[in-house]
Specification:
The protein starts with a helix and ends in a 19-residue tail after the last strand. The chain is of the alpha+beta class. The protein has a three-stranded antiparallel sheet with strand order 3-4-5, with no helix packed on it. A two-stranded antiparallel sheet has the order 1-2. The protein contains seven helices and five strands. β1 and β2 form a beta hairpin. α1 packs across α3, α1 packs across α6 and α2 packs parallel to α7.
Length: about 260
């Protein structure tokens, strides 16, 4: 259970960091686009908190992102963002129950392999659900902030810059300077998160429903096509292969 709690805190931290980076990018205080944060495993024994982003000026973006991370490390997380991250994870845990009755062979095989190779739990879904729900109830801002500080203390930043033309990318010296500059930005108090004000963190208002204009059966595929007033076309097909699950594939032409 101790290891499972650490894995849970990893995911909670990644969710909060993602929210912070999204907020900074949207408000223009972090000069990057499409930032992402998440946990990945390099080996079975080594987990990393990784980040990706696109920036017109890579070194400047790196400084801003690292400064934001250092601000989170110093100040910790607030109760509201931890609550929202816990609610998001709780919804995913609830999905476990909804989909348990229709798990596929590949999922069982993966769980068996992980169990025998790394000792990961292979309990009944209901038991895992109850255990994780119990762990979530004890997650708070203090424990999450402390866990993030331990993560940040484990290693120095590992930076990789990717582009089509090496001549247009920052040099190793420029990246070193960008990393050093992050500490200067934090000390000056100019990081978006250092004031403790996260801005409007409420969920966006759902848009008004779009009028359905037409629908037709696609008998060959056992599906139905829906046409809406905004020009969108939706093809819906029900399947009982996986319960409690919706798969969505979207495509757009031009623009």
């Amino acid at each position: 259970v101790g290891g499972e709690r650490l894995l849970l805190l990893d995911e909670i931290v990644a969710t909060i960091v993602q929210q912070r980076l999204d907020d900074g990018a949207a408000r223009g205080t972090i000069p990057v686009v499409r930032p992402s944060a998440g946990i990945f495993e390099y080996t079975r024994a080594r987990r990393f908190l990784g980040f990706n982003f696109v920036a017109e000026a890579e070194a400047e973006g790196l400084t801003a992102v690292l400064a934001e991370l250092q601000a989170m490390e110093v100040e910790g997380f607030n109760d509201d963002e931890v609550r929202r991250a816990v609610e998001q994870f709780a919804a995913a845990v609830g999905q476990m129950i909804d989909t348990a009755s229709s798990r596929q062979d590949a999922q069982f095989a993966s769980e068996y392999v992980e169990h025998f190779l790394s000792g990961s739990p292979i309990d009944a879904v209901a038991d895992v659900y109850d255990r994780l729900k119990g762990e979530l109830e004890s997650v708070d801002a203090a424990s999450t902030s402390q866990h993030f500080r331990r993560m940040m203390a484990d290693t120095a930043p590992l930076v990789v810059v990717v582009g089509s033309d090496p001549a247009e990318l920052p040099t190793e010296g420029q990246l070193d300077a960008a990393i050093e500059a992050a500490g200067t930005v934090l000390a000056a108090g100019t990081v978006a998160g250092t004031s403790g004000d996260q801005g409007d963190v409420s969920l966006p208002t759902p848009p008004e429903a779009v009028q359905e204009l037409n629908r037709r059966d696609l008998d060959e595929f056992d599906a139905v096509e829906l046409e809406f007033a905004n020009g969108a076309r939706v093809i819906f097909r029900y399947s009982d292969i996986a319960s409690g699950q919706v798969d969505l594939l979207a495509a757009g032409s031009g623009g």
